[in-house]
Description:
The chain crosses the membrane at residues 234-254. Keywords: Membrane, Mitochondrion, Mitochondrion inner membrane, Repeat, Transmembrane, Transmembrane helix, Transport. The chain is built from nine helices and no strands. It has 322 residues and is mostly helical. The chain has one domain (22-320): Alpha/alpha barrel (Mitochondrial carrier fold), CATH 1.50.40.10. The two termini are 29 Å apart.
Amino acid sequence: xxxxxxxxxxxxxxxxPAKSGILSSPxxxxxxxxxxxxxxxxxxxxxxxxxxxVKVRIQLTGEGTKGAKAASPISVARxxxxxxxxxxxxxxLSAGYLRQLSYGMLRLGFFDRFLAIVExxxxxxxxxxxxxDRAVASLSAGGLxxxxxxxxxxxxxxxxxxxxxxxxxRANYRSVIDALVRxxxxxxxxxxxxxxxxxxIRAMATNFGQLAxxxxxxxxxxxHTNLSFQNQTFAASTIAGFFAxxxxxxxxxxxxxxxxGGKGPDGKxxxxxxxxxxIKALREEGPLRFYRGFGTYFVRIAPHTVITLYCADNLKALxxxx
Length: 322
């Protein structure tokens, strides 16, 4: 990541300057990053959704059982197909789209705008924009976006985990809207923000790894290697994907458990909150449980980062030259 001020396109890679017209207006320049972030995220989600479904199933397998053998991604994928259809690997895709139209759009849009503010202030003070500046921008954008978009996360987890229940107990959600309505009716509006704390923390960790580390890695690769732009993007995204996965997986695990919902034999919720969930998982399943499915999670995060940034770059170039 370059430390020079005046480059606000870490989230949405740089592209040719806009031609004069409506797209060069201040309003368009502020709105454009949000729209591009949503659309590029939807493209990536369509491609990566099967890995996300498998990841959720792995995290929920063996819940409450210490030392339970971890299922492999291949075996889980085969089981999903055997129990239903190949299209079940795309379970919750409508919720995934809603997530990108909310969280995906907001995190990239906010990051772009926050970074622009940071750069303006840095220029006025005659200093360079630092990695710490970008880190703060990424953490803030991720946390704010996740807090607003949590209902989409809840719907996504409910739809993806529904197939794990006995057929008689499945909700069989027809769409993301159906899931949102039924969850709110059964659990109240608060139910749509179930697991919001670990979701926000996970989002902050993910965005820190994805955006801050991506920018830093790409800057170093550009400075010290002769790799092409595409190869720099791929390598930097892979590095960023690792750090995003490493920092965020434990919180993603807790978020998945909390948002799955469900009640115990006493009729009360299985978990009282994030700390209760973490303590029970640690006591009953061991510390390594928090990193079960890391390979699948990494395979989901890294390509999603590459695809999102690649699509964002090309979409912005296309729009700017229209």
